[in-house]
Amino acid sequence: MHAFRSNPRWNGLRALVTGGAGFIGSHLADELLARGYHVIVLDDLSTGRLDNVAHVLQHPGFRLIRDSVSNSVTIDQLVTSCDVVFHLAAAVGVDLVIRDPVRVFETNIVGSHVLLAATARHHKKTLIASTSEVYGKSEKIPYHEEDDRVLGPTSNTRWSYAISKAVDEFLALAYHQQVGLPVVIFRLFNTIGPRQTGRYGMVVPRFVQQALRGEPLTVYGDGWQSRCFCDVDDVVRAIVGLAECDDAVGNVFNVGSTAEVTILELARKVLSLVDDRPSSLIDRIKLVPYDQAYAPGFEDTRRRVPDISRIKATIGWQPRICLDDTLHRVFAYYRQDRESRPAIVDPPTSR
Ligand SMILES: NC(=O)c1ccc[n+]([C@@H]2O[C@H](COP(=O)([O-])OP(=O)(O)OC[C@H]3O[C@@H](n4cnc5c(N)ncnc54)[C@H](O)[C@@H]3O)[C@@H](O)[C@H]2O)c1
Question: Is this structure's pTM higher than 0.90?
């Protein structure tokens, strides 16, 4: 973790982190505890893992509640007892979205409504996790927060996640406008780091686990699609910085790296960390058409690059950790106690 300048005004405050046993939420909980917050994590452990928070279970400032964000009674009680709420619980990952679109809407819309209605009732500062997916397949690069969004048809399940997160944004901004709820929305671009699982279609942990098992890396599509990968420690620094900044209230912020890499380059980088024979690289990458990897008619976004000028101007944030350093950390995570990590299951259609 990086050293942060602590804001004494926030020391001792109580934070509720929904989805706090997940990949990003658990790193956020760590950072909040390190800054002197009391942290309550609410998580149903559907995609999150107890393992992610095992090291803080005995911390006097930490509590884990296993429940759903859609449980309005629990949420109301927890919101009452907190000063600030970080809402990260969501159905996440392209595989999961395609396999279980109903859950996407139930969690990401119904759950978020329950949460926002409670924070509005009790007037608690609320940070909402959104996603670069809301930009859809827009070809205007880089993506700026005020850009138009370009989404595919409703017959294509893939877009349901983007729609659900956009509804959360509308709802949060509506509460801000109508009842003065202090909300901040952060749109995360591809975030990577230790504790991320490859089970729901996340490319970096999937590649790293495949490489460690000596299997070919499965690259979906032609591999020329590009993404910008940001280290989770950088992302957490942005989220906490936004939470502690009064000027951020009522706004939407892109949070991501601007260093673009194609998925083929990413695969080569991952392979070069386990095998330095260049001749072997090509045999170890397997291209899988999208319709086999996901579903017929699957549409991907070719490029996804954030414009981060707004967050830079507001809290002076920009990423500090380069992709190679993060990949080393992800390798270290999966190498340590490899046997106990769950194996990645490729989408059923790609077998
Ligand atoms: N990882 C990324 O690259 C990325 C990119 C864009 C946006 N995001 C957003 O960041 C947030 C965190 O994502 P993550 O990558 O850590 O995924 P994750 O799956 O590790 O975390 C989501 C957490 O929410 C929990 N959860 C799901 N449904 C719940 C429910 N009904 N009630 C309570 N808890 C529930 C899960 O168990 C899990 O712990 C999500 O809102 C996601 O949309 C992530």
Answer: yes
